[in-house]
Amino acid sequence: MRINTTIVHGKGMTIDPVSRAIAPPIHMAAVFSFKSAEHGAKLFTGEEEGYIYTRLSNPTLKILEEKMALLEGGEAGAAFASGMAAISTTILALCNSGDNIIASAPIYGGTFALLSKLIPKWGIDVRWAKASEFVREIEVKHLIDEKTKLILTETPANPTLDIVDLEETTKLASKNNIPVAVDQTFATFYFQKPIELGVDISIYSTTKFIGGHSDAIGGVVVSSKELIEKIKDETLVDLGGVMSPFNAFLFLRGLETLAVRMERHNSNAKKIAQYLEEHPKIEKVYYPYLESHPQYKVAKKQMSGGSGLVAFIIKGGREKGKEFLNNLKLMVVAVSLGAVSTLIEHPASMTHSTYSPEELEKTGIPEGLIRISVGIEDVEDLIEDMDQALNKTFS
Ligand SMILES: Cc1ncc(COP(=O)(O)O)c(C=O)c1O
């Protein structure tokens, strides 16, 4: 089956064998009964398969986990309460006190806070390398040593859409026997297949494009059976950040329309990026599929589309940017991304406010940057809205 058919009919979207229902059942049960004391004991030892308690596993979560594994090209999946739960649990599954992680910068503000504040408290050192020159910086700064247990990347990176060269990264990592995890939230498997490029772990905030409707928080990790066992059975069950079965249902529903939404997000975003690039009041535009993007060639190599995020700097910097946001009538001023409606925000004061002004500067996140998550509306209406807001801002 090709990708669009697999999304609709692939594992997990089969007819329910008990009721013949066409939609997956939502098993809201927290706990499952045993046939006997012996049966219960066998489930706990793993001699028999079955459900015990939803923090350990749940039939609705299993449908989502298997579906995401299939679509991402991994062996198994694990579902989490949020993207942050997915990231933090993965790190804690793979690293002990005294180990270190190499992470790409920039990275989502929540992940940055986790890596710069919380993770070091647990005795895990975090070493940073620029996303755009990731492998070169790792080598020049000699970041890898025998205690490096994970390379964590995000590409395209939030919010500047810098691209990490995944092929180069996995080559370096496999030479050193270090697993690579990539945050796939921005591209999704629809535009990027990291596991095919040798990446070991794909991480999602399913809150974004997978859900698509800004109505559920969740996360998923896809990897080999062996690593999912470490991440889920040995870590998630104890840390406890498991997804709600109801949210798993919403993500399964979101997945069914992902392909058509991604096509529209992608074509709308490209048109908006081109519009902004030609506008005299716009200083700079960031979009992986614009030829002016510094890693355009890498983006073309590892992505089949630029996806739905565009960032830009308006002339007059932060002050004019604020005025522009307040002058918009259609685009919604809000954080998050991947929703059917267009969302626009100012990273330095919102999603990336966890960075100090010095950290923003060091990481290369411009103070005046504005990020748009382009929705699936008629792009002409979105451009007209930006046009009227720009005219008003500069009148
Ligand atoms: C790239 C990226 N990864 C992870 C997250 C965290 O996801 P969640 O909000 O579902 O915890 C976000 C949230 O914006 C994100 O943009």
Provide a descriptive summary of the structure in words:
It is globular and about 75 Å long. The protein has 395 residues and is an alpha/beta fold. The strands form two sheets. The protein has a seven-stranded mixed β-sheet with strand order 1-7-6-5-4-2-3, with helices on both faces. The chain has a five-stranded mixed β-sheet with strand order 8-9-12-11-10. 42% of the residues lie in helices and 15% in strands. The mean pLDDT is 97. The protein folds into two domains: 3-256, 3-Layer(aba) Sandwich (Aspartate Aminotransferase, domain 2), CATH 3.40.640; 259-393, Alpha-Beta Complex (Aspartate Aminotransferase, domain 1), CATH 3.90.1150. Helix 3 runs parallel beside helix 10 and helix 13 (317-327) crosses helix 15 (379-393). The protein contains 15 helices and twelve strands. Pyridoxal-5'-phosphate (PLP) is lined by residues 82-84, 108, 110-111, 154, 158, 183, 185-186, 205, 207, 217, 219, 336. The site of pyridoxal-5'-phosphate has 16 residues, from helix 4 and helix 5.
